[in-house]
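Handout, section 4.2: multi-component inputs.
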Amino acid sequence: MTATPARAATKWRPEEMMTVAAARALAGHTTCFVGIGAPSTAANLARRLHAPDLVLVYESGTIGARPRTLPLSIGDGELAETADAVVSVPEVFNYWLQAGRIHVGFLGAAQLDRYANINTTLIGEDYRRPAVRLPGAGGAPEIAASCREVFLMVRHSRRTFVEKVDFITSVGYGDGPGARERLGLRGRGPVLVVTDLGVLEPDPHTCELTLTRIHPGVDLADVRAATGWDLAVAEPLEVTEPPTTEELDLLRSLTQPGDTEGGAT
Amino acid sequence: MAEAGDGSGRGRARTATFVDLAEGIAALVHDGDTVALEGFTHLIPVAAGQEIIRQRRRDLELVRMTPDIVYDQMVGAGCARKLVFSWGGNPGVGSLHRLRDAVEHDWPAPLELDEHSHAGMANRYAAGAAGLPFAVLRGYAGTDLVRHTRTLAPITCPFTGERLTAVAALRPDVTIIHAQRADRAGNVQMWGITGVQKEAVFAARRSLVTVEEVVDELDQRPGAVVLPSWVITAVAVVPGGARPSYAHGYYDRDNAYYQQWDAISRDRERFTAWLAEHVYAARPATAASGGPPRGRTGGGRR
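Output:
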């Protein structure tokens, strides 16, 4: 960690802004259940920047992993070799996640609706004959239910930000206020959605995802156009601090071209 | 080959039989069986899965938390009638195209799904291992899985009244796993990420373990899981049997293979040609026949 003042970078890709903004959000948190792909990149960046003690938990049962390179899958040998403990899959879900020991669950989504319900199962009308079959639930339903808070990283487009998800794989705020309590879900649910255009947070009264920050250089009209519902926007709308050169350099040293893509959890 | 020992018989407990892989699959995996090949990224029994394809097993109910490319191959080859799973993708790459083709277009045959979350599947195996009909967890509430998956149901806690979810036990006819090594008595040892393999073996009626090598003595390894010989039906020595996944302490994951599989599997003709060349025309993976290999000693490699 350097003590010199952070210098703002001048050029970056939207995905890099998304990853940096998500990594910053992990400051002050202690434990994170990490989905593979973009969330894993952000969590590993956070651990190298401002959250060196952040405990990363992967669903393969690797607790406290400190990978020296970004894992390609949630079960890479690097995770096991650098972990404080390697436990069985039933144990990681029952004793660690379900029991409420993990602060932040960090997930992606193929579709997301205004109440932050997550679809990673299919695109289409008919479960038996989907237009596109996606990988499915993985660990996400219980991560979304049982972590104390959930962060999401999703690219902003009309394909992903939809009025109604085709399948509720993991519950955000269900059909609105009170739904999580009625369903008996113990965690608070998604408190932050970081995209490549800005940051959305649930309205404390309506639970509807509201744009609270916009990334530097992004037009509000573009965010609205990339959202499949009439997007609520906070007043005043804050602008995300641009990435620092330190953040960008570290991120670029971590990633190989193209590998921030990856599957769901 | 005897059914899996449960230790309840009189006299000496039976122990695992050493077989070669083709013999083991022929004896333990039958058309119509429920078959689990487990491995969570690590120690995936790929050679065994490809031997099932080579022996042209049909109408299998395939079970796996994370069906990856060997299940894509088995589904594409027409071995499966049903898939019981919680995440079906190519880790770090994207879709399983043969699985998608089966679900979206019934090619090469319709595929029934029994779909869960990881937590649900892990608990289903644990219930099977414990000889219980179901397991209980906090899960699924509010998801659309509730509407489509018949092996889960709401349940009320008899002590607190809390609403929870019950998931049906998994009881595979046969579970197949890959481990680092066995000793000459057929006791099996694995370490690193061991996933749900122990539960999957205990849940099954029969089990086959492929191993990298046989050693005289299983010395201690941190965090190792040991499965005593008498809970395993058969052991086959198949060095490299988990490739292109990895075997901790033996070889690394072949990430390029997973990326190449994306292109091979996208196209039916290319996949069919791949199957003919790399599975049907290939010789069964085998290193041992008719008993434990002789003349090999030592504690194995790190």
